[in-house]
Write a structure and sequence with these properties.
Distance between the termini: 35 Å
Oligomer: single chain
Shape: globular
Structural class: alpha+beta
Strand content: 15-25%
Number of helices: 19
Number of strands: 33
């Protein structure tokens, strides 16, 4: 179980710790204590191996398709963090002997993993261990490790075997060909491997430095190599009170690297350059490298985002920092070809693929906190436009139909076709989202719109955004079907955000988002016709314009039910069987409903997996549809209560949306409870919740619930709104956002909203129904909070 009380002084509310070792529950800390820098993600497995440990190193963007019947995925690269330690010839493991004072911790402030304990061997010998590890933000190709040992009792023979192990797989699937491995100058280990299908070269390097009682140990180590593995072994004799230190520095490079616009280089050049880089790191040593890494985190992350929360529950502050840490660790560095996977770079689940999670749950943080990263993530989608067109054509549609799961931009649809076992039939279930969960195309159009409104980045619209919106509008226009009875267009046989409802007609979220997408294309075309007719002509949308207009106006949009204003989630949802869901709403593990029902049966029950209609209300009020009569505050309140009672939150995407909605309708206690539950998805006591990897969208949602929910920061069709409603437990929150290229520092209490601007030019925003002009400093009294 995680412990959040360790941080003291300057490190208060900065430490995630584990005080007890359990060989049965390794996955939780391996995941939540991930080390990453956007280029690589390193799962925090223990140095010594355990049966249930999962060693993962993922390099962003290095997708490979292992076989024709497999989908492309991020391959698990060679491991260099494992240390085989022997004490007097016996394998060291915490499963043997006795352990006390055990602490494994992630220091978020310094972005350093640590582990320390005193271990008594089965023979009664007492040794103190301290491990440290970083994945450098300053040098993205660098992983640093340091082991410190002290002999506390009897003389001890110590043996350590360490190297680079390429015998890794993705759940048994091998992605690499046998490569070259060698030891250079009797100290530098180098191993190369190449992916089987995408032919991406990896170059791994490692070097060791050993000291005994502050004196460097110089001498030959035993050197050996085998298939896909190369290593060195060190033998040291320890006397009582001896202190032994081993540093291990590791670098990873790939032929995909193109930082700062550089062209990829040859494998021989990559070997030479990466080895030279390792030698420079060796001269500095772990402590200096860790300090440079710490300073980079401080300057580029903690000083830049400067997010503080004063709460009766200190874990709230830690949760915000946890979110900022992992959002930084998952964000691609200097490469527009890379997206963010549903598990970030923390585990094999979802294979590194990007979903709608990015645009709806993760991208908002970057739009308001690091706009240049937001632009890069949207450019990734733009680079995927040809494959989206290809998918549309293969399905008989026009325009761009974005993949439900996207890997490398040109890979096309990456969703697996088959999933788990149907408990009734015993057969594999088909994964339908890749075929009929269409809303992602409109989600991407919405993200373009939100980014452009918040940043004023007209150049991005000209280079990419307009085309993305126009091409997705073409798709929707071709996808709509005419219903003769209704005398309207409709969208049948779809999956909306609620994936417990498959093959439904007129999912409200999908229809309204398609409507928004079409209307946005019309607005952008009209804007360009006025401001830049030559650019508009280059898109060739003149013939499409009338079609978009006709189909947008003729599209069936589900109406609130007369009497209670409930918006039907789809054509049949409100007619389905209503059952007692208390058993499932009180579950400690997601998707327990599948123990009692199969997908077909769930399809016939009024049960919702995750926010669907509630999410629709939240998104639409940020657009030019904000004044639509169907999205009144009264309807928003009615739909929240109706669907919250039927939503199991079996997706990690769901809780933060409901937290924001609850706060909007004045349900502050419920909003805070939902926020805390969302924080607990990865940080909570369930030791199995994160074994397969982080819930990246939920982590983005933590920031959203705080900023969009409690601080009330929104955009409403290009107008910045700030309407705070802090939970009773929060006394104050301070953070920074960017609006139209300018930084705004917000300081919020229950009584006062204080905003500090850069003074470059006035910023207009609405608060409490009044439009304000901010130059440098503005204070607004708050009431009714």
């Amino acid at each position: 179980m995680l412990d959040y009380s360790l941080g003291q002084g300057a490190y208060e509310n900065w430490i995630l710790a584990e005080r007890d070792f359990s060989a049965l529950h390794l996955g939780k800390s391996e995941t939540v204590m991930l080390l990453g820098n956007g280029y690589l993600g390193l799962r925090s497995a223990a140095e010594e191996p355990y049966l249930n440990g999962q060693r993962n190193l993922f390099i962003n963007g290095t997708f490979n398709q292992a076989d024709r019947n497999e989908v492309t995925e991020l391959p698990n690269a060679a491991d260099a963090t494992r240390l085989d330690i022997r004490i007097d010839g016996q394998r060291f493991s915490l499963e043997f002997g006795k352990t006390r004072d055990y602490i494994k911790q992630l220091n978020l402030k310094d972005a350093e993993l640590g582990r320390s304990f005193i271990w008594t061997s089965p023979d009664g010998k007492e040794l103190q261990f301290r491990f440290r590890r970083i994945a450098s933000l300053d040098n993205p190709h660098l992983i640093g490790m340091k082991l410190e040992m002290e002999c506390l009792s009897h003389a001890t023979s110590l043996s350590i075997t360490s190297g680079i192990d390429a015998r890794m797989s993705n759940s048994g699937v091998q992605h690499f060909m046998e490569g070259d491995h060698r030891i250079i100058e009797e100290r530098y280990i180098q191993l190369t491997q190449t992916t089987t299908q995408s032919e991406i070269d990896f170059v791994h390097n490692a070097v060791h430095r050993l000291k005994l009682n502050d004196e460097e140990i110089i001498g030959k180590a035993d050197m050996d190599m085998d298939r896909r593995r190369v290593w060195m072994s060190f033998e040291i004799e320890l006397q009582p009170n001896d202190k032994f230190v081993m540093e291990k520095l590791i670098t990873v490079h790939t032929s995909l690297d193109s930082e700062n616009g550089e062209e990829p280089i040859s494998l021989s050049q990559l070997r030479e350059r990466s080895l030279g880089e390792l030698k420079k790191h060796e001269e500095e040593g772990y402590d200096k490298l860790a300090e440079s890494h710490r300073l980079t985190w401080q300057q580029k992350v903690w000083d830049e985002y400067s997010f503080e929360v004063e709460s009766e529950n200190p874990v709230d502050q830690l949760a915000i920092r946890f979110a900022l840490y992992h959002l930084t660790a998952m964000a691609p560095r200097n490469d527009d070809r890379l997206g963010i996977g549903a598990k970030a770079l923390s585990g094999e689940a979802y294979k590194g693929h990007s979903f709608w999670d990015t645009e709806i749950f993760i991208l908002p943080f970057f739009i308001y906190s690091a706009p240049e990263r937001a632009r890069s993530l949207l450019t990734y989608r733009y680079l995927g436009l040809p494959s989206a067109r290809r998918k549309a054509g293969e399905n008989g549609y026009a325009g761009a139909m974005y993949p439900w799961e996207m890997a490398w931009p040109t890979d096309g649809e990456a969703t697996p076709e088959w999933g788990g076992i149907d408990i009734v039939t015993g057969e594999r279930t088909k994964i339908w989202p890749g075929f009929i969960e269409y809303h992602i195309s409109a989600d991407i159009a919405l993200a373009v719109y939100q980014y452009a409104n918040a940043t004023g980045d007209e150049e991005f619209l000209k280079q990419a955004g307009y085309k993305m919106v126009f091409e997705t509008a073409r798709f929707w226009a071709s996808r709509l079907e005419w219903n003769e009875n209704r005398e309207q267009f409709e969208i049948t046989d779809v999956i909306g955000p609620d994936e417990y409802k498959e093959h439904v007609d007129n999912n409200a979220f999908t229809n309204y988002m398609a409507y928004f997408n079409l209307k946005l294309a019309l607005r952008y075309a009209e804007k360009l016709e006025k401001d830049n007719p030559d650019l508009l002509a280059s898109f060739g949308v003149e013939a499409a314009y009338n079609d978009w207009q006709r189909k947008a106006e003729g599209l069936y949009l589900p109406q609130p039910r007369e009497g209670d204003l409930i918006l039907p989630q789809d054509d049949t949802y409100l007619t389905l069987q209503d059952i007692d869901l208390d058993k499932y709403k009180q579950q400690t593990k997601a998707r327990t409903i599948y123990r009692d029902y199969n997908p077909e049966q769930i399809n016939a029950i009024q049960v919702t997996k995750q926010a669907d209609v509630v999410l629709l209300f939240y998104l639409m009020e940020q657009t030019f549809l904000k004044d639509d009569f169907r999205f009144t505050q009264q309807a928003k309140r009615a739909n929240f209560f109706y669907y919250e009672a039927r939503t199991l939150h079996d997706s990690s995407l769901s809780l933060t949306t409901h937290a924001i909605a609850a706060n909007d309708i004045g349900e502050r206690e419920r909003a805070y409870e939902l926020f805390q539950r969302a924080c607990g998805i990865d940080m909570g006591p369930n030791m199995d919740s994160s074994s397969d990897g982080l819930h990246a969208a939920s982590i983005g949602g933590i920031w959203k619930a705080a900023v969009f929910g409690f601080a009330g920061v929104r955009q409403s069709d290009g107008i910045l709104q700030i309407n705070p409603r802090l939970p009773p437990e929060w006394r104050r929150m301070r953070f920074k956002i960017y609006w139209q290229g300018q930084p705004l520092q917000l300081d919020i209490t229950g009584e006062l909203l204080k905003i500090k601007g850069s003074g470059e030019r006035p910023v207009s925003f609405e608060s409490g129904g009044t439009v304000h002009q901010l130059d440098r400093l503005l204070e607004i009294p708050l009431s009714g909070n």
